Amino acid sequence: DTPVLALRDVSRTFRISRGLMRGKATLRAVDSVSLQLRRGEVLALVGESGCGKTTLSRILLGLLPPSSGEVLIDGQPMKPADRKARARRIQPVFQDPYSSLNPRKTVAQIVAAPLQVHQVGDPAGRARVVAETLDLVGLPRRVADSYPGQMSGGQRQRVAIARALVMRPEVMICDEPTSALDVSVQSQILNLLLDLQKELGLTYLLISHNLAVVEHIANRVAVMYLGRIVEVAPTARLFAEARHPYTRALLESVLTPEPGLGVPDTHLGVAYPNPIDPPSGCAFHPRCPSVLPICSQVRPQTLRDALGRIECHLHGPAPTGAASAAPQEQ
Ligand code: SF4
């Protein structure tokens, strides 16, 4: 099957100042990422703050052009001019329903905004679609005239989901969709996302720090470190036997007093590197408990096998001639 959405060798760099007298530097926020979203799946993207997850999601949403590489929808490269078509097919759900909803607009105005921006339908048609979308997210139609300030956190996140759904997209990019909510409400929102996925055949890219959420709803997990995807695997396998030392450290960090915040410096003994000066070879080598002599010299190649995909010298690429036995691109 052609993936609904794919990144092909996508990189994104930024020129940033190193500070007074030290000139400019290039920050490679996303580094040669290839990734595919299969229709109807939940693919989770995990990694510490600053690893490039948000840049990647902005590229997918068309909010940021890649410096190189391509974004493909149904196998077709997307161009900057395709913004409207992209918005019809890919919609974001942002992290914080408190800051992402305009407090001076009613729920009806907020949910209808994407239809208006993209000039979909007439006012009566838009009102009907908004009412149907409120039904879909489990909000009573009477909240259409309410303001975000009159609603609970869970209701606001339902409004944010309705705003994304109103365009009837195929893909939703959910960036920490429950992290600003009370624990008691989080599972309601996650279950709503799962119900919508089944009912509407949606595909999700879930960006999350919360590995419990990832384990609950994702089919596959992609692990990102300093702009690169270092491991991709089905969720159950990744949680049962992660292969990449960084993935293992992330999973172990859940057991620390600050779960879900990334790998604490104390855990690996070395802080997360400065992305302006990434380590040579495998960028994880200064923190890796399994480091080999080659790791600081040579960047590992990507191995794709029956267990998933991994970029680590402990798991070398398939020898020449074995490529035909490799499973499909992931
Ligand atoms: Fe560790 Fe080397 Fe694998 Fe990088 S390539 S994760 S440093 S063993």
Unreliable runs, pLDDT <50, ≥5 residues? 318-327
CATH homologous superfamily identity: P-loop containing nucleotide triphosphate hydrolases
State the total count of DSSP E strands.
12
Characterize the overall form. globular
Query: What is the top-level CATH class?
Result: Alpha Beta
- CATH 2nd-level architecture: 3-Layer(aba) Sandwich
Rg is 21 Å
- Which ligands occur here? iron/sulfur cluster
By DSSP (H or I, 4+ residues per run), the number of helices equals: 10
Q: What class would the helix/strand composition place it in?
A: alpha/beta
How are the strands of the biggest sheet laid out side by side? Answer: 6-7-8-3-9-10-12-11
Mean pLDDT equals 88
> What does the main sheet amount to?
8 strands, mixed
Distance between the termini: 12 Å
Strand content: 15-25%
CATH topology: Rossmann fold
Helix percentage range: 25-40%
Q: Domains counted in the coordinates: how many?
A: 1
Give helix and strand order, one letter per element, not per position: EEEHEEHEHHHEHEHEEHHHEE
The oligomeric state is: single chain
InterPro entries: AAA+_ATPase, ABC_transp_ATP-bind, ABC_transporter-like_ATP-bd, ABC_transporter-like_CS, Oligopep_ABC_C, P-loop_NTPase
Protein name: Peptide/nickel transport system ATP-binding protein
Family: Belongs to the ABC transporter superfamily.
Main location: membrane
